[in-house]
Amino acid sequence: RKLRSGERKCTLADAQFVIARSHGFMSWPALAQHIEHLARKNSPTAQFEAAADAIVSGNIQILRRLLQENPDLVRQRSAREHRATLLHYTSANGVEGYRQKTPKNIVEVADLLLRSGAEVDAEADVYGGGCTTLGLAATSVHPEVAGVQEPLLQILLDHGATIDRPNLAGNTHSIVIACFANGRQRAAEFLVTRGAQLDLQGAAGIGRIDLLKTFFHSDGRLKPSATKKQLQNGFLWACMYGREDVAMFLLEHGADLLDAADSGATALHWAAGGGHAGIVKLLLDHGAPLEETTRWG
After folding, report:
1. Given 5, 119, 169, 246, which residue has the most CB atoms within 10 angstroms?
2. Is residue 23 very low, low, confident or very high in pLDDT (cuts 50, 70, 90)?
């Protein structure tokens, strides 16, 4: 805005900084050094970048050759600030934007990397840090669109990927809640069948009303293992993902029609946005106002 109004001039240093940041580097000198290393055909940087390109294009022959020529490549880290390993690139999430794509053979690619010694729970410095390939793949839209998300998650689990440590997809969430927050309902449901644990809000989002009821005493009070915040978040997930029986149950147990919690919008907004007419009617019948705005207006 200041540039457009003429209050501030764009200097060469400003332009260099913007270019560096757009390529995932903290500074222009860091990007310049990366380019210098990239120009050396057999440098570790050049090999890593070639391998990353092979992964996202599904060129398993080139990837296999690169791994045979340099077995340590599978544990190498990107020079970019996310510090991703090659395995992280199979998630199509958190890495540079132009490489966020999923070839149809990504499961075969991931299996090759894992059998070549990739660390299945290696962490990348994205979304607050601590992200594993499982967490990133579960919350990524690209594997889902390609129709390979569940097989990709399964191959990672088969190789021992941790499923229940918080923050696998960043932002301190459990993996199930991270899936909900990123619109990956089917991934959440799949991971629950593979042993992902559910708290109150997770049970609500999945639609497990049987499990949900275990977080309450017979008189309707929350048990110590659950919190009012989890109740409200669970109510919002239920409205977002069409869990009408859960929404009714939580309304009867203290859910707030106006509390957007961490989501930025009320239950009515989420139900209407998801096209869940039954829940919309339920909320209106309980007095949800039409005049509330979201965090975004």
Report:
1. 169
2. confident
Residue that has been written with the tokens 């997930």 in this structure: 237
* Weakest-pLDDT range from 44-48, 260-264, 265-269: 260-264
Dihedral, 130, 132, 136, 142 alpha carbons, nearest 10? 140
Q: Are the C-beta atoms of 228 and 209 separated by less than 8 Å?
A: no
131 three-class SS: strand
For residue 42, the model assigns a pLDDT of 86
The CB density around residue 239, as the number of other CB atoms within 10 Å, is 35
CA distance 170 to 124: 9
State the residue for tokens 């309450």.
Answer: 216
Amino acid at 38: L
Distance CA 236, CA 267 (A): 5
> All domains of the chain, ordered by start, with CATH?
17-197 (1.25.40.20), 203-285 (1.25.40.20)
Per-residue pLDDT of 102-159, as tens digits, reads 999 999 999 999 999 999 999 999 999 999 999 999 999 999 999 999 999 999 999 9
Average pLDDT, the chain: 94
Q: What sign for the dihedral angle of Cα 37, 42, 44, 47?
A: positive
Which contacts qualify for 255-264: CB closer than 8 Å, 24 or more apart?
255/231, 256/232, 257/283, 257/286, 257/287, 257/288, 257/289, 258/288, 258/289, 258/292, 259/232, 260/236, 260/294, 260/295, 261/229, 261/232, 261/233, 261/236, 262/233, 263/233, 263/236, 264/294, 264/295, 264/296
